[in-house]
Amino acid sequence: MEELIMDNIIMTVGTSLVENYIANNPKKENITKEDILGYYEKENIEDFRDRRYGAEIIALENLMEKKIFSGKRIFLVIHDTVNGKLAGDVLEEFILKKNIAKVVEKRIIHSLNKRDHKEFKTIGLKGLTEEISNIVNKIGNNLNVCVCTVGGYKAEIFLVGLMAQILHLKSYFMFDEFDEVTEISPLPMKIDYDFYLENKEFFKLLDRKEKVKESEIKEILDKNPRLKNFIEFDEENGESYVEFSAMGEFYMKRMTSTSNLPLSTSKYSPSDKEMEGSIKVTDELENIVNSLKCSPYVEKLKVVYYNPDRNIAFSKFSLAQNYHEQMIVSLEYKCRKGVAGIDLYTVGGTEKVMKSLLAYFNENFLD
Predict the structure, then answer these.
(1) Distance (Å, rounded) from C-alpha 232 to C-alpha 242?
(2) What is the pLDDT of residue 1?
C-alpha cells in the first residue's frame, strides 16, 4: 500500500543555523538574519544535506526526497529567545527562497527559556502543548500532518514526540550522526477517559483554582498516586502548592473539549423525544431523563434497562459500539440502588463531533 504524502509538517526549531554561522564567523557581533543568509549564499552550498546547514534543513530535504512531505506548508515552532527567533526568521526565509515549501507559519512559544526552570515548565511547556493542539485542530486531519523533532530543547522534543503518539501523528527524528530521518509511527493507544471521570472532582478542582495547597489534596494523592503524573509541585513562602503539569493540562483540555459540537440541532420538542419501548423510569431517574430531553443535540432517547442488583463506581456517558451508524451516546447511571441504562440518539456527525458530544454530556449532566 502506497504511503500518503503529507501536506503539513510541524517542526521544532533549534538554533543550529545560528550556531553554525557563529562557529564560522567567531568575531562577528550583532548578528542579523541578512548576515546568516548572506553567508550561506556566499558559500554556495548546493547539497542541502551539507552539515553547515542546520538539522532542520537536512531533515526537510530528506523528508521531501522520501516523498513524505509534499512541500505545501511548514509550521515552525520557535523559542522566544533572541537566537531562537533569529533562527526561525532565517529558516522561514531560506525555506521560501529555496522553494522547500510554499507556506511557512511561525509559532513562537513564550517562556520556553532554559535559564528559568520554573517558567520553562509551568508556562513554556504548557504553551507548547497548547500550540501543537491548536495546529493539529486547524489542519483537521491527522493523516495529513506529521511532526519533525530535530531542533529545540530535549524536554521540548520529548513532549512533542509524546503528543504525536496521543494525537496519532507520525513523527520523525534525526540523530546527530546521521543525515536521514527515522520514522516513529503512532501506537494504537487511547487516553483513558474513565480515569478522568473517576477522578473528575480532583481535575475540576485544579482546573478552577489553577494552584492549590498540597495539604488540601494530600489525602486524594495518597489514595491514588497515579494522579501525581498530572501535576507539578512548587514551593512558595514555605508552603507546597500543586498545579497541572504541561501534560496534565493537555489531558484535562482533551477530556473536556467541546470545540467540535454539531452545528445542527434536534427538530423534536422535549415531549416528543422518548422512544417507544422505553422502560418506565423511577422518580430518581426522572430528573436526568427530563434534562436530557431538553438537550438540543438529542433527537430521541430510550431507557433501555434498570438493574437493581448491579453496582458501578460512577455514572458515565460513553460512545456506543455502533455509534458510527446511529450516533448513539449511552449513559450508565448509578442510582441509589442499582444501575440504569439510557441510549441517546444524537444529531451526531463525524468522530470529532461525537467526541465533543461525549465531553458535553459528561460535563453538563453529571455531578
Answers:
(1) 6
(2) 43
